[in-house]
Write a structure and sequence with these properties.
Length: about 200
């Protein structure tokens, strides 16, 4: 599973209609809706869109015949095994009707081209962990976490008796990483009992 790394754009003209594609990486529905709103052009004939965020997906034909715009956009996202992506296709009608098949090809094809050209990054499922450590182990733990691909320190809280780190670890390596950190600190590191979970990042 992958996502795109930045906003990607693509413009194509098909039988005098202009299709303007904008795609962006998004982490939640609020971000997807904000992107769709920011990219939609009120002067255009249609602003059709779709997004996929894990198991959540939505699409909209915005006045085009049912099933000819939003669904092909979503299928283009899914067809490239992408997640955390929102796409808006703004259409300026050029006076020539494309028919249902033509619309499906135009929307799906223009989005597929845009996404193919976009820079991508592989998504790693992650789990959130809370780590309690003594001051003397701080540098050692931070250094080790920085060398683990897919590990991210979310926050650090300094207290009277030590430091609390909240971090994301690759789900498939989390147990091994935690054990290695405990070993590294000769058992001084304590894993917080109230771990939260995070989805793909």
């Amino acid at each position: 599973m992958q996502t795109i790394t930045a906003v990607a754009r693509h413009v194509v003209e098909i039988k005098k209609s202009r299709f303007i594609v904008a795609a962006a990486p998004v982490t939640d529905e609020a971000a997807a809706k904000a992107f769709i709103a920011s990219e939609s052009d009120a002067s255009a004939t249609h602003n059709c869109w779709a997004y996929r965020i894990g198991q959540i997906y939505r699409f909209n034909d915005d006045g085009e015949p049912s099933g000819t715009a939003g669904k092909p956009i979503l299928q283009a996202i899914d067809g490239q095994d992408l997640d955390g992506v929102a796409v808006v296709v703004t259409r300026f009608f050029g006076g020539v009707l494309l028919g249902s098949g033509g619309l499906i090809r135009a929307y799906g094809g223009s989005v597929a081209e845009c996404l193919r050209a976009a820079d991508k990054i592989r998504l790693t499922p992650q789990v959130e962990k809370g780590l309690r450590l003594v001051f003397s182990d701080h540098g050692l733990i931070k250094s080790r976490l920085e060398r683990i691909e897919g590990a991210t320190v979310l926050s650090e809280a300094f207290g009277a008796d030590g430091i609390f780190l909240r971090c994301l670890l690759p789900s498939d390596q989390a147990d091994g990483v935690i054990q290695s950190l405990i070993d590294l600190t000769s058992g001084r590191l304590v894993v917080d009992s109230q771990d939260g979970r995070s989805g793909s990042q």
